[in-house]
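Lest this sound abstract, we let one protein speak, letters for residues, whole numbers for local backbone shapes, and leave readers to judge:
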Amino acid sequence: MSSGFDSNPFADPGVTPFADPSITQVTRSTNAQNNLEDYNPFADGEAAKPAAPSEPTPPPPAPSRPAIMQPTWDQPPAYTPSGAQKVDTTDLERRQQELEQKEAEIQRREEELRRQQASGGRVLNNWPPLPKKCCVQPCFYQDISVDIPTEFQRLVKTFYYLWMFYVGTLFLNVLGSMAYMFTSGSASTFGLSILFFCLFTPCSFVCWFRPVYKAFRSDSSVNFFFFFFIFFFQFIVSIVQALGFDNFGTWYVMLTCLKAKSNTKNQRFRK
């Protein structure tokens, strides 16, 4: 009985009602949530991060001064012109020739206009160059420096000189045929040579020189055709005449010399 009264009813019986596992788990979860809300992730980093060292203060800038270039006395390198800088004299000469040709062409046309105005729009014939008192007047008008373009004048002059050479050859043929007549006594060759000279001189001028002259003057294909056809025919005839056949109206120096040598040998053989 006494032991029952001596015990303290308010004393800790040794069993805590909060020791229940379910209550303990709820209490822990509540404390963890409160701690999570109060947690600052940057607090420890800032506390653990060492303080950055302070940068040194830059010195004050020096007072600015104007830039002064020191003169240099070095000699400049030798000048060597490149290929693009060299002047091509051939190109300049070609252009100069073209300008001169154009100038000559303009002068030719101006001269032709003045000549036509002076003659009242008519073209006066001037070839062959005969005196005014002659009963026969010129039949053609010919002026290569006026009628023919500048680039073809030299070629046309060459044809004109060729025609003059042909006429001179016919005249020499007359003289040679006359000498051959006196040595051999054949007059047919001399007579035919005169006929060829009187016939071929005007025919060659009219039939092939005038066509080539008009062809270059007006760029006519028909005149070029006549020139080539007749000139080729006369070239064949000239080759045949150059052979110097007897009684053919032509005299050939080499053939005559061979005949003279053969006659001399025959005379010696007979003796």
The CA atoms of residues 156 and 213 lie 7 Å apart.
